[in-house]
């Protein structure tokens, strides 16, 4: 638990330690229970006027009202609770203790930054603004923002401005970078599932193995999105996973799935690319007897 009187180098050291503590206990989207409990302790020690829990899942929101008691505006600052499905192999002393899960996107650092702001607010409340600190769940899946927005605890708030931040490795320390228009690209995840027919590897002709069709479909999708990718440096397409069969040599698999992430600097560009993706998937004719499904994540 923190001490709200911390400031200066003492606070900076504490936040560094907190960030490492959070890095050790990463939790995936929708499962941020332990992380949320730790953040609650940290926030509670700074004596906010209110802490809302269970927001859109495991989310939390702390409120710091102005000394005047008459706020002229309400400002929200956001960080994220969740980690991603990656096995950490850094060998760092504070490496993730959970195999297959890691804070590889900096959310541990973002949380520490907002706890630092909570310390500042504990020492000196704003004169005429209410400050809200939001710790959002399930950012990585894209589900957390919608869940928070639809939560009645959040809908009842009247927020004038909201601010988010992201660390920028390779840039100068202790510096805040801002820019006009888009700072980071919007993204969407798309998944395609191919269903054929299993068979013994000794008789592959009796089955319907989707491997060739899947590879060709991925190449076709990439080619169809070339114009999108080349139109703007913020437009990206990445195949994020491919799954088919088991680590065995006796079975010719009958199912496969793969995921693609699209990114664009504009909502319109992203929507157009996603539609183009879906059209391309639907154009290609599957092999006789196979099925093809797609979903947006």
**Main sheet strand line-up:** 1-2-4-3-5
**Biggest beta-sheet profile:** 5 strands, mixed
What's the CATH first level of the largest domain? Alpha Beta
Q: What's the mean pLDDT score?
A: 92
Percent of residues in helices comes to 25-40%
Q: Indicate the proportion of strand residues.
A: 15-25%
- Shape, principal axes of CA atoms: elongated
Number of strands: 11
Summed up, the domain count is: 2
For CATH, the homologous superfamily of the largest domain is named as: Zn peptidases
Please state the structural category. alpha+beta
Distance between the termini: 36 Å
Q: Kindly provide the radius of gyration, computed on alpha-carbon positions and rounded to a whole number of angstroms.
A: 23 Å
**CATH architect. name of the largest domain:** 3-Layer(aba) Sandwich
Count of runs of 4 or more consecutive helical residues: 8
Low-confidence stretches: none
Write down the CATH topology of the largest domain: Aminopeptidase
Helix and strand arrangement:
Elements: H1 8-24, H2 33-44, E1 50-55, E2 59-64, E3 73-80, H3 107-123, E4 129-136, H4 144-150, H5 152-155, E5 161-164, E6 186-195, E7 199-200, H6 211-224, H7 226-231, E8 236-244, E9 251-252, E10 255-264, H8 267-283, E11 291-296
Helix pairs in contact: 1-3, 6-8
Annotation keywords:
single chain, 297 residues, alpha+beta, Aminopeptidase, Alpha-Beta Plaits, 5-stranded mixed β-sheet, 4-stranded antiparallel β-sheet, 8 helices, 11 strands
């Amino acid at each position: 638990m923190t001490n709200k009187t911390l400031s200066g180098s003492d606070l900076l050291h504490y936040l560094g330690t907190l960030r490492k503590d959070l890095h050790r206990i990463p939790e995936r989207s929708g499962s941020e229970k332990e992380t949320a409990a730790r953040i609650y302790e940290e926030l509670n020690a700074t004596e906010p006027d209110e802490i809302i829990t269970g927001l859109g899942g495991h989310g939390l929101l702390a409120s710091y009202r102005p000394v005047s008691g008459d706020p002229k505006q309400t400002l929200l600052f956001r960080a994220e609770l969740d980690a991603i499905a990656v096995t950490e192999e850094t060998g760092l002393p504070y490496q993730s203790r959970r195999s297959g899960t890691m804070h590889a996107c900096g959310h541990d650092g973002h949380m520490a930054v907002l706890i630092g702001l909570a310390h500042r607010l504990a020492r000196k409340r704003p004169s005429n603004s209410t400050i809200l600190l939001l710790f959002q769940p399930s950012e990585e899946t894209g589900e957390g923002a919608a869940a928070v927005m639809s939560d009645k605890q959040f809908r009842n708030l009247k927020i004038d401005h909201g601010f988010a931040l992201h660390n920028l490795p390779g840039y100068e320390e202790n510096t805040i970078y801002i820019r006009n228009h888009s700072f980071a690209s919007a993204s969407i995840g798309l998944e395609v599932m191919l269903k054929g027919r299993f068979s013994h590897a000794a008789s592959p002709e009796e089955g319907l193995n989707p491997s060739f069709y899947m590879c060709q479909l991925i190449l076709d999708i990439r080619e169809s999105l070339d114009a999108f990718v080349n139109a703007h440096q913020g437009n990206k397409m990445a195949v994020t996973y491919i799954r088919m069969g088991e680590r065995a040599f006796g079975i010719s698999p009958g199912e496969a799935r793969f995921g693609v992430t699209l990114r664009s600097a504009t909502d319109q560009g992203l929507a157009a690319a996603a539609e183009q993706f879906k059209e391309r998937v639907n154009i290609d004719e599957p092999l006789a007897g196979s099925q093809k499904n797609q979903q947006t994540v």
